[in-house]
Amino acid sequence: MRIPLLDLHCQNDPLKERIDIVLEKLFEHQKFILGPEVGELEKKIAEYCNSVYAIGVASGSDALFLSLLACGIRAGDEVITTPFTFFATAGAIERVGAIPVFVDIDPRTFNINHDEIERSISESTKAIIPVHLFGLMCDMDPIMMVAQKYNLFVIEDAAQSIGSLYKGKKACSIGDLGCVSFFPSKNLGCFGDGGMVVANNKELADKVRILRTHGAVDRYFHKEVGINSRLDTLQAAILGVKLDFLEKWHETRIENANYYNASIKNPMITTPFLPEGYRHIYNQYTLRVKNREKLVNILNKEGIGNCIYYPLSLHLQPCFHELEYQEGDFPISEQASKECLSIPVFPGLTIEQKNYIIDILNNFS
Ligand SMILES: *Cc1c(COP(=O)(O)O)cnc(C)c1O
């Protein structure tokens, strides 16, 4: 049996007729840049995130970059984030000229350890980017408290967590800005790159909106230097169709995860931790495995998709050499990068496939 890590056909193929209809409409009006579908999707995403504003941009990476620009983060400023995340989080900080300041993670959740944030704050600190990794939100109350105390912006990296909940609050609705990605492998993926910035603050939302069209307030009159980063009308049209199915897909991922949680019984393997009061949307179902290399070899031999998110903690990346971090600076993150392993959890995974995977995991020693 071959099982991919993610089979997009399961979610996209049943929607072909609906997607054909919106593409037909697009072909008629041909408003390819910021056409009506973009505004419609922005409204729907803002509403879905229990927020007021949303601005469609070209990717989740650009959502982070534009959010930092909108908050006025510039050269020399420091931004606190986790070293255990996709590269884009720290990449965006560097791109605005600021300095990523890493804080180690909680070993159970893989998310930033809020207890260690305060001691990393300096006079140059301007913002915190908590990353809601794998579909599980960060413990936001203490993060917001420390941000308020030191007057810092909070930009939620919700690229993997649209629809995730923390104490009844949606991802993106708590911080000053929230960043979403529509990369095809996210829970809500488009047919290419896409992203969105979500906001409750009008001033910041307006800034992001202006910055995504080169900082033009009126066409060809530029108040600031932005970039060209818009969500294509084409992608917005497709996302408009897919959004109606997102809750169902989340529920299926959660069912798959619950089934794994109840069935995987192997002292070598730790299943994901779910704290009380959270809704995990399992963009990834990530195990901790002792002797991971051996298990990866078995899974590969059996044709079961798997991936290591992420194999090298960001503080040890060659491009951040100048930040002068060393091995041992963030031991929890480093250990996670040696033990984590994600396995298929996508909606559409059959019971036979799940049982097949569980059998292999339970027989691993
Ligand atoms: C995917 C992802 C991003 C970047 O999104 P893109 O749309 O691929 O640019 C940023 N942060 C995290 C945590 C991600 O998983």
In short:
The chain has 365 residues and is of the alpha/beta class. Helix content is 37%, strand content 15%. The structure holds pyridoxal-5'-phosphate.
Keywords:
365 residues, Aspartate Aminotransferase, domain 2, Aspartate Aminotransferase, domain 1, 7-stranded mixed beta sheet, binds pyridoxal-5'-phosphate
Task: Describe the protein's topology.
Elements: H1 9-12, H2 16-29, H3 36-48, E1 53-57, H4 60-70, E2 78-81, H5 87-95, E3 99-102, E4 125-129, H6 140-150, E5 153-157, E6 165-166, E7 169-170, E8 177-181, E9 195-199, H7 202-211, E10 216-218, E11 221-222, H8 233-243, H9 246-263, E12 269-270, E13 278-279, E14 285-289, H10 292-302, H11 331-339, E15 340-343, H12 351-363
Parallel strand pairs: 2-3, 2-4, 4-5, 5-8
Antiparallel strand pairs: 1-9, 6-7, 6-13, 8-9, 10-11, 12-14, 14-15
Helix pairs in contact: 2-8, 3-8, 4-5, 4-7
The structure holds pyridoxal-5'-phosphate.
